[in-house]
Amino acid sequence: MKRVINFNAGPAGIPVEVLEQARDEMLDWNNTGMSVMEVSHRSKEYEAMHDETQERFKALAGMGPEWKVLFLTGGASSQFFQVPMNFLFDGRKATYLVTGTWGKKALEEAKRFGPCDAISSKNPDGTFTRVLRQDEISVDPSSAYVHMTSNNTLFGSQWHYWPEVGSSPLVCDMSSDIFSRPFPVDKFSFIYAGAQKNLGPSGLTVVAARQDFLEKSQESAKLPTMLSYATHLENNSLYNTPPCFSIYMLSLTLKWLEKRGGLAAMAQVNEEKGKIVYGAIDASQGFYRCPVQKDSRSLMNVVFRLGSEELEELFVKEAKAAGIIGVKGHRSTGGIRFSMYNANLAASAHAAAAFMDDFRRRHG
Q: Phi, psi (5° rounding) for residue 171?
C-alpha cells in the first residue's frame, strides 16, 4: 500500500495513526461488539465518548466552563444562516469582515435576516489578496456581533493577528485553520468549523460558544427546532441522532493533537511547512508567483500561479504521477493550491518543494 501526499482542500488528509486506530476498532469499538456507527447514541458508551470529546476540545483550545461545545451538521455553510437566524432579530444588525469568498457568502446569508455592515479587502477585479488591516476596521458598537473568516481557502490568505472589534462579540468561521495554532479564546464569543480539514471527516460541524452569548439568541419558539442553538444546548447535541462516526473520528484526532504537544507544537510544524513551500516559490525567480501579500499568506492553503494555464495543467498531471494529489486550484480561481492541513507534516512540504524545484528545472 502506498499513501499519497494529500493536498486536497477538504475532505482532506487525516493522520495515519487516527485512520489505523479507526480501522482496528471498526468491528468492535470499546468492547461493545459493534462499530461506533452501530452503537446507540443513547448508550452510556457513546455518551461517555461524546462528552469526553467536548471536554478534550475545550482543553486543547484553552476554554473554560463558560464555553459550550455543540456537534451539528450542515457544514460551515449552514452556520452562515444559522448564526444570523439566531442573533439578528428585532432590528439588530451585524458587521462582517469580508476577506474571501466564504466571508462573502456568509454576508449574503446574513442579509436575509437583518442589516449588515460590510468591511472588505476585495480588490477591484473581485479577487482577495490580503486580510484587512486594523486601521481599516471600524465597528458600529451597536453590532450584535462581528463575523470574520480566519483563513481563506480559495485565495490563500490568513489572519496572522486577531482584530480589535470593540465591545461587540466576535464570531469566527475557523473551518480551515482551527487547531493549527493557538488562538486567544477570550477575544471570541462564538467559533464554528467544518471538521473536514483539520478535525476529521466531513459530516460534522463543531460550534463552540460562550454561554452568555448563546443566551442572547432568539427565543427557540420562534425558530425551527433544529436551527435553534438552544435546542442543541439543552440536549447536549443529542436531540436527534448525531454524526456518531465523525464525532468519534474527531475524538481520535484530538487525542493525536494532544500526543503531538497540542496547538503550540502544531503551530511550529505549520510555520516550518510554510517556510519550506513559500521558500520554493520565492526562490524560483518568478517561475512560481504567489499573488497573496506576504503578511497575509496562509499556512494552510498555499496558492500560486505558473506562466500559463497549460503549464499549470502539466504541473497538476506530473504532481499526481509523483504521488502528490489535490493540487489544482479552486475552479473559481485557477492556479495551483497546496492545502497543507495538520495531517500533512513537514515531510510532505519537503517532498512538495523538491517536486517544485525539479519541475522548474525541467520546464523553466
A: -110, 135
* Of 29, 67, 102, 159, catalytic: 102
Contact present, 8 and 343 (Cβ < 8 Å): no
Which of 67, 68, 197, 273 is flagged as catalytic?
A: 197
Which of the following is catalytic: 67, 68, 173, 273?
173
Provide the grid cell at 168.
Answer: 461587540
Give the C-alpha separation, 170 to 176, whole Å. Answer: 18
255 is catalytic: no
pLDDT in tens, 238-285: 999 999 999 999 999 999 999 999 999 999 999 999 999 999 999 999
Query: Whole-model pTM?
Result: 0.97
For the chain, give every domain's residue range.
16-259, 262-363
Give the single-character DSSP code of 175.
Answer: T
24-75 pLDDT, tens digit each: 999 999 999 999 999 999 999 999 999 999 999 999 999 999 999 999 999 9
Q: Which class would CATH give 262-363?
A: alpha beta
Strand partners, 95: 117, 146
Indicate the residue type of 199: L
Bridge-based pairing of strands 151-152 and 146-149 is: unpaired
Pairing of strands 146-149, 94-98: parallel
Contact call for residues 175 and 192 (beta carbons, < 8 A): yes
Answer CATH for 16-259 from 3.40.50.2300, 3.30.70.1530, 3.40.640.10, 3.40.50.300: 3.40.640.10
Q: Any idea which residue has 482584530 for its cell? A: 163
Q: Dump strand ranges (E) for the chain.
A: 5-6, 67-72, 94-98, 116-120, 146-149, 151-152, 157-158, 170-173, 190-194, 205-210, 301-304, 324-325, 336-339
- Cβ-contact 359, 352 below 8 angstroms: no
197 is catalytic: yes
**Is residue 173 flagged as an active site residue?**
yes
